Amino acid sequence: xxxxxxxxxxxxxxxxxxxxxxxxxxxxxxxxxxxxxxxxxxxxxxxxxxxxxxxxxxxxxxxxxxxxxxxxxxxxxxxxxxxxxxxxxxxxxxxxxxxxxxxxxxxxxxxxxxxxxxxxxxxxxxxxxxxxxxxxxxxxxxxxxxxxxxxxxxxxxxxxxxxxxxxxxxxxxxxxxxxxxxxxxxxxxxxxxxxxxxxxxxxxxxxxxxxxxxxxxxxxxxxxxxxxxxxxxxxxxxxxxxxxxxxxxxxxxxxxxxxxxxxxxxxxxxxxxxxxxxxxxxxxxxxxxxxxxxxxxxxxxxxxxxxxxxxxxxxxxxxxxxxxxxxxxxxxxxxxxxxxxxxxxxxxxxxxxxxxxxxxxxxxxxxxxxxxxxxxxxxxxxxxxxxxxxxxxxxxxxxxxxxxxxxxxxxxxxxxxxxxxxxxxxxxxxxxxxxxxxxxxxxxxxxxxxxxxxxxxxxxxxxxxxxxxxxxxxxxxxxxxxxxxxxxxxxxxxxxxxxxxxxxxxxxxxxxxxxxxxxxxxxxxxxxxxxxxxxxxxxxxxxxxxxxxxxxxxxxxxxxxxxxxxxxxxxxxxxxxxxxxxxxxxxxxxxxxxxxxxxxxxxxxxxxxxxxxxxxxxxxxxxxxxxxxxxxxxxxxxxxxxxxxxxxxxxxxxxxxxxxxxxxxxxxxxxxxxxxx
Amino acid sequence: xxxxxxxxxxxxxxxxxxxxxxxxxxxxxxxxxxxxxxxxxxxxxxxxxxxxxxxxxxxxxxxxxxxxxxxxxxxxxxxxxxxxxxxxxxxxxxxxxxxxxxxxxxxxxxxxxxxxxxxxxxxxxxxxxxxxxxxxxxxxxxxxxxxxxxxxxxxxxxxxxxxxxxxxxxxxxxxxxxxxxxxxxxxxxxxxxxxxxxxxxxxxxxxxxxxxxxxxxxxxxxxxxxxxxxxxxxxxxxxxxxxxxxxxxxxxxxxxxxxxxxxxxxxxxxxxxxxxxxxxxxxxxxxxxxxxxxxxxxxxxxxxx
Lengths: 677, 305
Fold this sequence. Notes:
The structure holds two protein chains of two kinds. Chain A is α+β, with helices and mostly antiparallel strands. Chain A has 26 helices and 18 strands. Chain A folds into three domains: 12-154, no CATH class; 201-498, no CATH class; 589-676, no CATH class. The longest helix of chain A is centred in the N-terminal third of the chain and has 25 residues, at 157-181. Mean pLDDT of chain A is 81; it is low at 193-198. Chain B is α/β, with parallel strands linked by helices. Chain B folds into two domains: 3-186, P-loop containing nucleotide triphosphate hydrolases (Rossmann fold, 3-Layer(aba) Sandwich); 210-298, Helicase, Ruva Protein, domain 3 (Orthogonal Bundle), CATH 1.10.8. In chain B, 45% of the residues lie in helices and 14% in strands. Chain B has twelve helices and nine strands. In chain B, helix 1 (6-15) runs antiparallel to helix 3 and helix 2 crosses helix 10 (240-256). The mean pLDDT of chain B is 84. The A-B interface holds A 587, 591, 594-595, 609-616, 641, 644-646, 648 and B 212, 214-217, 260-265, 268, 297-303, 305.
């Protein structure tokens, strides 16, 4: 067998690396194209078949090269659709699959190992939860085991694992230090936009949609407050304003969208004037694939990093420059007492009075009657709210289907619906009455994770309306609050329990039925929050804060000193592991003396001891040494044997003899070296 | 080498020419109070070596030629009815000697083999309920033909373990064989005189027990034994009896070389003869090389803590 060539059948490391590669490819199923995934799995199958000895001929170079050309051109064809990052990930996995088929010698193996590390890193681009981090950590250990095995094939697996874990534990403090001090660079690639609509709010709402959302208990965001929390009833997290109504559905007005894009393009940002008390909080948003953000009332970005990444729109929304493809934290200040009356575009009122040409005749008639009775805007609004409160409306998660004239059916026939039904009906009625109104969707409430942290889930999704009332600007009205006060005061859970709806459709049913599960759920939510806040949320700003906290002011001198200190710390840790004598108990003095001499003699003669006993080795190298050196080495060896094998109490005279002989040996060998030179 | 053994080696060397190492190993085995197995082809000097050894130490010697129809009683002795005394009288068999040469031990049936091996282990013989102690010192030299030869019952591993050492003489070198031929044409082989008294052999055996075996050497022996058990490359791992034998033989070798303490070289010198026949599996029996024990020696560092 040639050196460096791996046996094909029965080579455990090739199997491990193939399996690791399979696991990695499958974990990346969403960014990978199906055919790349299939190619990867084929390569793994080939490798496993070779390992088990079902088949003895690895695919030859010509076949694999042909395959490479085919798949590279296919990938090139798709690359314009995929975008840079995804094409590169696909390319990496594709290249690894082909290499895996050809895996023959140690060099191939090392290339695969390094590519494996890259793929693993790519995994972290697409998912960052704590569990995926733990998963990739486990995969990393498996990958390292494979590499360990390539260098120490004879070592039993258990021992390899033990040594590897020791190394990992040793490396972890260094990794921690590097995590804290390494500069946080912005990503060098553009994250691709979402391929499919993620769960969550959407830009088009047909009443009933949000009820469907309430079945989901996915986390939407965590908000960490710096100061007091707002009351439950005031926690209206705005996300979207829906200003176009077609008789059935509400959606973001095309004109609004268009203007927003133009303004963004021209870099015109809306900057509302703010004053008064504010809630200051950090939002850690889960990936949604969308660009809208969540904030209460009139909100402005709270720090420079958030300001740089967020664009404020005229309808008082916060919009991220990049879609939320991964967890993202931003800082917000919300001013509850500042009215939303600062931006007035001429089209604001116009688009919010837009109505479908026909439909819902009963409502039209009813509103015109109301208008005649209450010519005052305020009075009309009160009358509408009273109607919702007193006309026998019911709040339900399971509204009946209302396909034709939905507002009529809802208001006069079924009188039961979810928040979006009420919001839709009220906004429609206001528009009919000539008051500009729009539907706002977002979330309401949120549960306390800890004292300062609110968790908002998909089932907190909510819809309400905003009406434009002269100088007061946009004012919030929530018809749901009068129909189901518990929904607003205590949250959805309470509202459902009161309405007595069947538990089967209740999102809390599965989770909160058992106290232990609820407790566990809370614990996981807490862990995930801490992970997001302290690990994923550790960005350049936080890092700077930390440095500031450590150093006071950030002068170049202090920063330099900090980095030097970190380097010294790492060097110290490494020294702790690698300096001899720290880990092992110190060897007896005579053994050390002998070993020093042996190193010198073996480098001089080029003859290693190779597990020979001391005396035999001495006899072997003596002819190769200069005469005096040979003599001294023999004396040294004899003294060593006497100490090591003859007497149990330490023999000081022999030790002294050894030391003397060693000194003379060193001198003799040095002389011979210089004479040679 | 210890002065009192020099004449023994010299005398034996006249009969078995050019086999110094094997002679020394045989002496070591005698000093360690163990039994010796000589494995070789017919006509290589197995019998000569054992005969000479008996002479040199002045021991009484008997030779049992093992054949397939040899019965245990042929070897151990029988109770014979004495008509004059009207009683059974024990007539000891050839095994009641200080040095027994069990020639071609693997030609006898397993029953006879095990009777001998029992006597070797217990140092006594029980016949019809009466125990008869064997003479002291009691030393058995078994010889066996390589098992691929016709008509052999190979000794099982458990019985091979009873022999402290196994040596094989091998063909003599060109010069040695020439010297042997010349010598036989000139004169008859002179008889060997007793060089060491039997009684002093017993005291020497006691002295061997007092040789110092340091912690380092014991650890070395343990590492060798442990590796043979951990590594799957060794079909028959070394038993605790083997490690005891290894230490005893190393002590004897050190004593033979007039050193009051054991060094790893002693262990290495006796290791092949002590360990190889225990390590090997029956299938490799015909393979005469000492691969397994050499590999074991190469993979353990006597110095490592």
